[in-house]
Design a protein that fits this description.
Layout lengths: L8 H15 L11 E9 L14 H11 L4 E4 L32 E7 L13 H24 L3 E5 L9 H14 L6 E2 L2 H4 L17 H9 L5 H6 L13 E5 L6 E3 L8 E10 L2 E20 L2 E21 L2 E5 L5 E7 L5 E8 L4 E6 L2 E7 L2 E8 L17 E10 L5 H8 L8 E5 L23 E2 L4 E5 L6
Parallel strand pairs: 1-2, 1-3, 3-4, 4-5
Antiparallel strand pairs: 6-17, 6-20, 7-16, 7-19, 8-13, 8-17, 9-10, 9-16, 10-11, 11-12, 13-14, 14-15, 17-18
Helix pairs in contact: 1-3, 2-6, 3-4
C-alpha cells in the first residue's frame, strides 16, 4: 500500500493560508514556552465529548484522567462541527484572540492529538463517487497540512484515525477503510479508532446518534490509545520500521510461557499478528483475562432518554491459538473451536487474531484470509506467545509444538479489519494503536529479560525461563 502525500492547488492554497496565520501570531501562543508535558486534543464534536451521557469530555476526559496519573496535562481544545477547513483559524489567533474560541497554540502544548474524521467533511452527503473522492482527498490533505503546521510550531502531532457514522453506505465504508490504511502508514503516531468503533459496516457498534458514540463507545476509543505513547515520544522513540533484509527469527521448543506481555492498563479491542512456522500440534499463543457482558439501561443524554450500554466483567478466561489436528485453530473464551482448515505445514504462515469488543466478535485470519469468527467480548490482561502460559486455564492447554519459529510479532490496542490484515500479510507495517512490535531478531534472548519493541510505546515483551534461540536462516524470507 502506497503512503500518499497530495500536492494539489487546494493544498498549496491551504499551506499559504496557514503561513499567513503563522505570520500573524506575534505576541500569542508560540511566543510563550511550550509546556513539556501538556497535550491538547484539537478536533471536532467527538473529540469534544459529544455523546458521552455523563458529560465528562468523552475519550478526551478519559485520556486526561489516565495521563494525570502519569504527570501529564490534557486540555480539550475541540469544537463541535469543525472540519479540516473550519479548524484552521483556531490553530492560532489572528490578532487579538477571541475569548470564546479554543485556540491550539494559545495553550502552548508540546503535543497535539488531531481529532477529525469524515463526519463533518461531507463524505456521506456527496452524491457521486467522484464527489466522494474529492472529499477523501481534501480530508487527507487537510490533516497532513495540520500535521505539517504542528511540526513547524515544534508541537508533536498525533492523529486519531477515521471512525464510524450510523448512516454510512457500503461505498462510504470503502472510503473509510481506505483512509484508515493510508493514515497508518504516514510518518505520524495514530490511534486506530475504526478498530474500536466499527460494527463491520462502518457504523457505530456502541453509538448514541448518527455522528457520536455513547459513553461506552467513547471508552472503546479511549482504550485504543497506547498508554505510554507520549512517554515514548518524549524519549524520542522513532516511527517503527521493519528490519532491513533480516532473515532471523526466534525458535522455541515445547514452550509454556517463553514470551509474555502484560498490559499496564485496561485493554478492550485488540489484535495479535505473528508469522509462525510450527512442527507438530501445540499452543502457539494464549490470551487470558475476563469476559465481558453487555448491560443496558435507559439514561438521559442531552435531555433525551436512550438505551445506554455498559460492558462489565463476567468471568475469567483463557483463549488459545494452536495447531490442532495439523491445522491452525482458535479456541475461544467459551471453548468454541474455530478450525481454519489451513494446514500447519513446513511453510511460514501469517496468523492474525482480531477482536472487536464493541461489536462482540473475534476473527481468525490465516495467510491474509478470514477463516472464521466467534461471538465473544473480552478484556485481556495477558498475552503469551510460544505456549499456553502457566496457571489457571493456560496450564490445562497443550504446550507449544515440539518446535516452532516466530517472527514479526505485533500486538495492537485496536482490532484489525480485512484490509489491514492484507497489508500485514503483504509484509508491510501498520502503526495504528501499536503497542508491541517485536521483529524477534534479537542477537540473543536472555532468560527473564525482555526483547526489542519497536512500537512507539514503553511496553515490554518479557522472556521467561525457557530457552529461546535466535536462528539465522538463509533460506527463509522476511
Amino acid at each position: 500500500m502506497t503512503t500518499f502525500r497530495w500536492f494539489t492547488p487546494w493544498r498549496m492554497l491551504l499551506s499559504i493560508l496557514l503561513a499567513l496565520f503563522v505570520a500573524q501570531t506575534v505576541g500569542y501562543g508560540q511566543t510563550a514556552k511550550l509546556h513539556p508535558r501538556r497535550i491538547a486534543v484539537f478536533g471536532s464534536s467527538v473529540a469534544n465529548g459529544r455523546g458521552d451521557e455523563f458529560a465528562r469530555d468523552g475519550y478526551t476526559g478519559m485520556l486526561r484522567t489516565l495521563m494525570a496519573a502519569r504527570g501529564w496535562e490534557v486540555l480539550n481544545q475541540s469544537r463541535g462541527g469543525d472540519n479540516v477547513r473550519s479548524i484552521v483559524p483556531r490553530f492560532t489567533p489572528a490578532g487579538a484572540p477571541d475569548p470564546k474560541v479554543r485556540y491550539l497554540t494559545a495553550v502552548n502544548p508540546s503535543y497535539v492529538v488531531i481529532g477529525l474524521s469524515f463526519g463533518n467533511e461531507g463524505l456521506y452527503e456527496a452524491k457521486t463517487t467522484a464527489e466522494k473522492e474529492a472529499v477523501f482527498k481534501a480530508y487527507g490533505e487537510g490533516v497532513q497540512a495540520l500535521i505539517d503546521r504542528a511540526r513547524q510550531n515544534n508541537i508533536v502531532p498525533i492523529i486519531s484515525g477515521v471512525y464510524t457514522r450510523s448512516v454510512y453506505t457500503p461505498e462510504d465504508y470503502s472510503f473509510l477503510r481506505r483512509m484508515n490504511v493510508i493514515q497508518q502508514q504516514w510518518d505520524v503516531p495514530i490511534v486506530n479508532f475504526l478498530g474500536a468503533t466499527d460494527d463491520g459496516h462502518g457504523r457505530w457498534s456502541l453509538g448514541w446518534d448518527d455522528k457520536h458514540p455513547q459513553a461506552s463507545g467513547h471508552k472503546e476509543m479511549f482504550y485504543a490509545f497506547v498508554p505510554t505513547l507520549f512517554e515514548a515520544l518524549e524519549a524520542g522513540k522513532a516511527t517503527p520500521v521493519k528490519p532491513v533484509n533480516s532473515r532471523s527469527f526466534a525458535r522455541v521448543a515445547g514452550g509454556r510461557a517463553p514470551l509474555t506481555y502484560t498490559p499496564d492498563s485496561v485493554v478492550h479491542p485488540f489484535a495479535v499478528s505473528v508469522m509462525v512456522r510450527a512442527q507438530g500440534n501445540g499452543t502457539v499463543a494464549a490470551i487470558a483475562g475476563s469476559t465481558l457482558v453487555a448491560k443496558t439501561e435507559t439514561r438521559p443524554n442531552e435531555g433525551k432518554p436512550f438505551e445506554a450500554t455498559t460492558l462489565v466483567a463476567d468471568r475469567t478466561f483463557t483463549a488459545t491459538l494452536a495447531v490442532q489436528n495439523g491445522r491452525w485453530a482458535y479456541q475461544s473464551a467459551g471453548g468454541t473451536v474455530v478450525d481454519s482448515g489451513v494446514a500447519a505445514d513446513a511453510r511460514w504462515h501469517h496468523i492474525v487474531l482480531s477482536h472487536f469488543t464493541g461489536l462482540g466478535e473475534t476473527y481468525l485470519y490465516v495467510d491474509g484470509k478470514l477463516t472464521g469468527k466467534v461471538a465473544e467480548r473480552l478484556e485481556p490482561n495477558r498475552f503469551v506467545i510460544g505456549g499456553p502460559g502457566s496457571g489457571p486455564g493456560g496450564g490445562a492447554a497443550p504446550a507449544g509444538p515440539r518446535q516452532a519459529d516466530y517472527k514479526d510479532l505485533f500486538i495492537f490496542r485496536s482490532a484489525l479489519n480485512a484490509d489491514e490484515v492484507a497489508v500485514l500479510a503483504d509484509g508491510k507495517l501498520l502503526q495504528g494503536s501499536l503497542e508491541i512490535y517485536a521483529p524477534l531478531t534479537d542477537a540473543e534472548f536472555a532468560s527473564n529479560g525482555s526483547v526489542e519493541n519497536r512500537a512507539q510505546s514503553l511496553a515490554a515483551l518479557k522472556t521467561g525461563a525457557e530457552r529461546i534461540v535466535r536462528v539465522d536462516d538463509a533460506g527463509s524470507t522476511n
